[in-house]
Write a structure and sequence with these properties.
- The complex is a heterodimer of chains A (about 130) and B (about 180).
- Chain A is mainly beta and about 130 residues long.
- Chain A folds into two domains: about 30 residues; about 90 residues, no CATH class.
- In chain A, the strands form three sheets. In chain A, strands 5, 6, 7, 8, 9, 10, 11, 12, 13 and 14 form a ten-stranded parallel beta sheet that branches.
- Chain B is mainly beta and about 180 residues long.
- Chain B has a domain of about 110 residues.
- Chain B contains one helix and 15 strands.
- Chain B has a 15-stranded parallel beta sheet that branches.
- The longest helix of chain B has 8 residues.
- Chain B is elongated, with a radius of gyration of 29 Å.
- Classes of the chains: A mainly beta (about 130), B mainly beta (about 180).
- At the A-B interface, strand 13 and strand 14 of A face strand 14 and strand 15 of B.
- Strand 14 of chain A pairs antiparallel with strand 15 of chain B, so a sheet runs across the interface.
Amino acid sequence: MIPLTNQAPRFVTCYHCGEGIESTASARSTSCPHCHKRLVHDDMIIEVATMWSGPIETCGRVVIGPSARLSTRHVAASESVDVAGDLTARVTCRGLVCLGGNSIFKGDCTAASLEVERGAIIKGGFFQIGH
Amino acid sequence: MDIRESTSVLGSSAVFKGEFAFEGDARIHGVVEGTISSKGEVRVDQGGHVKGNIHAAIISIDGKVEGDLTATDRLELLAGADVRGDLLTKSLVVVQGAAFVGHVSVGPDVNTNPKADRPSAHKSTNRSTRTKADADWLPEAVTAPLNNLSPITTPLTRMPDWAGQGAQVARPAWMTGGEPRQE
């Protein structure tokens, strides 16, 4: 068993307040010492068609697979949101939002940067990128 | 990037005001206050600043734009782009570092006609200001009967058929100017 002290720390960003947090690499969730809200560290990978009533929030990545169709209220990710399928949601990302060539996105988007591949379809949401 | 002969260049040391229409390509280095339209490519370079709408086949932004962008073919936001306005295009390319705020509609079905209505967020929902174009999304089978309706020409005094021919409404005498009503 590897001692915890030998594991490299993981730096994540709180998707609530935006403050940086140092955590252990094996941690799957924690609470933000600044805003005291619960944080999820796991990456979220959606590969099926589903409707999710609650928000999808993580300090890592959110990946919408090519065959996935996700309709949800809010998607928040600290690192990135990669969309290859259909996504209907309000997206908040402190990193990169990537819309693949076959993706269909409907909703508002707030992100540090946006990458749109040729062929992606965006259905009239409000975007705030880089501000 | 080589500049072709048909390319018009608006220099960096000038301020242009008005409505600009280009047959070919255009490169904006200075400040433009007004609408720009082109059948070719419009490129706003670094240092360029456009305060107005741009409509062209290809729009490439590396400067600052305060207005709506409508590209019939392709819209590129380069690393130095700072756009405040709505984007309407069939194909969008955003390079990392670009910044923009506004509504976005991207896809092959997007209507990039300059006379078309803006994205739905700006469309008035007031019934009194709605036009026939607002109902264009309805199938023809639905709109045709509505358009073929004849105006109401029947006088309001005519009795309905179910009341029988020559039927008269029995009115009290005081309504027809007869004897006054006895209270």
